[in-house]
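pasting AB hydrolase-1 domain-containing protein for the record, 307 residues
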Amino acid sequence: MNAVTALPQTPPRRRHFDLSTPHGNGQIAALEWGPEDGRHDLLFLHANGFNAMTYTRLLSPLGDQGLRVLAVDLRGHGLTTLPAEADATVSSWDGYRDDLHALLRALRQSEGEVPRVLAGHSMGGATCLLATLQWPADLGPQRPLVLFDPVVAPPLAPDANRDPSPLLAGALRRKNHFDSPDAALASYQGRGAFKTWPTEVIADYLADGLFLGDDQAWHLRCAPTWEAHNFSHPFRPVNAPIAQLPVPITVLRAAEGSTCHWQDWPAQADVRTVPGTTHFVPMERPELAREVLLAAVQGEREAVLAR
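structre below
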């Protein structure tokens, strides 16, 4: 296999869930590690523009340790087929919240319970937080959260409603035409957002991040226009009771270029800035990321036993 299709020693199982949502129906694709049955210990959501496979080297070792882990491709990303039209389908990240609620209902119906812990990076972390803030009663108790540099800014942040985000501009400029997967890999190594990424992690991202078009060129599964649409509708809580959330919360913020500017966290939240990191904390510090994910799951298991 070439570098782009190579996987870790323990490859994930592919899962697909049929969902009906207010924003259109389709399948949400997911990857699974660890035991094949029982309650999921962890559900993980990726950052804008990426996919579940991007985090396989982060999550696969947790499966090897006995955790049942599910990572999903959000709408407009990876192999998920939910409709993603930038001008019509989802006007804000509320759509991702609704998708997550629908997936959790499907898991609760099939397994009896939702995953023990919800976790995510960047937009994925913000989605977990938003879903928890507006948690439906039929899903049972709210779940502990692990958030890696989530995109959360106060409504009146200094940069609000001013010039377009540089992330949005970068997404619109993103190249979307490659001669081969290896050409895509070579174009990303050591550059831009991928500057601090190990080559193997870029390869994992591209494994589910590209498709061969009718023009015999390779294109991004997450269209740059969709990625830009997400950047144009960031999560800015308005009167959101984040500080009143009762669940355990762990937040790892980037030391440089963080997208997590929220300050009013609950008293029990463990909020840390990780020295020497950029926005891509899970790629740069995977050992620490796994440590906090494992601790969150173990803490929830122990809390259940103590009840």
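The two ends are 49 Å apart (CA to CA).
The chain has nine helices and ten strands.
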